[in-house]
TrEMBL record, chains A, B:
Gene3D superfamilies: 3.30.420.40. Keywords: Kinase, Transferase. It comes from Microbacterium saperdae. It comes from the Bacteria. InterPro entries: ATPase_NBD, ROK. GO terms for molecular function: kinase activity. This is Glucokinase. It holds the Pfam family ROK. Transmembrane segments: none annotated. Belongs to the ROK (NagC/XylR) family. The lineage of its organism: Bacteria, Bacillati, Actinomycetota, Actinomycetes, Micrococcales.
Amino acid sequence: MTRSDPAASVPDVVRDASGEALAAVRGLGAGVPVLAFDVGGTDIKSALFDADGTAHGLRRTPTPIVDGDRTEVLIERLGVLAAELRAAHPDVEPQAVGLVVPGIVDADAGLGVFASNLGWHDSPLRDLASVRLGLPVAFDHDVRAASWAERLLGGARDYENAVVLVIGTGIAGALLVGGVPYTAGGYAGEIGHSPVAEGPICPCGARGCLEAVASAGAIARRYHAATGIVPNGAKDVIARAAAGDQAAADIWNSALDALTLSLAQLTAVIAPEAVVIGGGLSRAGGALFDELRERLAARLSFHRLPVLVPAELSGNAGLLGAALRAREVA
Amino acid sequence: MTRSDPAASVPDVVRDASGEALAAVRGLGAGVPVLAFDVGGTDIKSALFDADGTAHGLRRTPTPIVDGDRTEVLIERLGVLAAELRAAHPDVEPQAVGLVVPGIVDADAGLGVFASNLGWHDSPLRDLASVRLGLPVAFDHDVRAASWAERLLGGARDYENAVVLVIGTGIAGALLVGGVPYTAGGYAGEIGHSPVAEGPICPCGARGCLEAVASAGAIARRYHAATGIVPNGAKDVIARAAAGDQAAADIWNSALDALTLSLAQLTAVIAPEAVVIGGGLSRAGGALFDELRERLAARLSFHRLPVLVPAELSGNAGLLGAALRAREVA
């Protein structure tokens, strides 16, 4: 490609910050072919799913950057990505598109209501994408779509009432009630932006949000602020804590306490059968899951404790959810 | 009556601790006649609703006291109360019974799973009541039944997704999702027993429960502990705070902060359209509602704030909910 339009210039596939390649995508099962896009503040995952449910051309490309509202450059980029996918796989004829984005999403109205790192307010993303791509578009919130994929294909498959929690750079959540996502007009599930402490101030404007204390991003930032050392992510802080670094231990301990408080609130009020935890921090395994199980049981009394299970679809749950949603409108 | 069996000896109607007579019961509307019982740890409210939905013989009588499981004495007492209601109103022929109790309730299985002040564990209250009373019995949790009455007849009538919060001696809650109570096997809605602080230890066994900090009972107890003065209820503590009593102001302020934290959690995670607040503390009016509205808005950012509205059915919501449930099984 020699075009200089930044919205149309698609770099090569990128890998995770951690250096891992994209995880293999679990198949969707048979159904109509669809295009799927999982848009984040940093990158876009895209793929073409065929009639067997196999993903083709899966890659991760940077989300185009402009000041302010990124709607226009994003829609243009989706058009280019779609054209490339279709050109590379002419035998697969997609019938619909699934598009999922972060922030506050009104899926019914097709609006990106608000996304702090994408700059839009009440942006009619569904209709704009449909015009640009010439196909019906299913539009949803990224983590709600991911929870739907975990419900149909992954860690939540056995639970009608579950919470899916993604702990990575931020913390996002989604509720499954009676087997389906509970949305509340797009406002439900903001577990990352529920208060658990008096501070620090969160980029969202509130104070003491769970995300500002206990996300993988916050754990790394807090360790840097406390010691001047730039850790290699939250994983490194957890390893330092285990090796006897007191500052790391204090930060990891307070993050676990904050996560426990949020889980205790969820348990008392919603009483989900399961909490499915994904995102980068979930790779901490027993250091996370065993600690949370133990602390949650100690924090509550007569309550019915949820099972805490790892998400199974890892970084691809949002993309799979987008594809599942696309098949609903095809 | 000259019988000496304590379970069968029914004292006269009692009045509220505050001296108020029982509030007039709003009519249910037309339907089959039913008996309704709202059982609490202290007293039982009972009434016979006729085909017009008018309550007859409404009264509040003490819950019989025995050590341990109170199932047997309760069921016997319900039999006596039912017989008296039917004898006093021979023209009204009830077709079913509504029975609501506190604690953890498995409405589907008809079980009182747990109630700290009534001593039972997995007690088959529905079937026992049905045998004793010779009628089909609808069985439910008291505050969920109250939320159902508020949904059909009261403050939640305009809201599909709402939380009903009763702040009195304790704090109990119930969730309405998609217009119907959300139960999670009886474990949902325990807002009073969700952690908001590191202490004090709650009678439920957990620590820092909202109920232990911010219920009307806790506010009065905490003022007594801080000053040695026995206040005339939470209302008195609030009045003392307004009059410049620093200890009262500190306690009331911390109670409002704790309630705000719980409301902020509900808003972020469930995003209800409304929170309907009843119970003794709700009579504080603006001192409660205006403060909570202001503090909740200050505590959050992009979130969709619920409207905070007073419950309309006051102390009779549980009884009305029991009667509504009874009509469903008649």
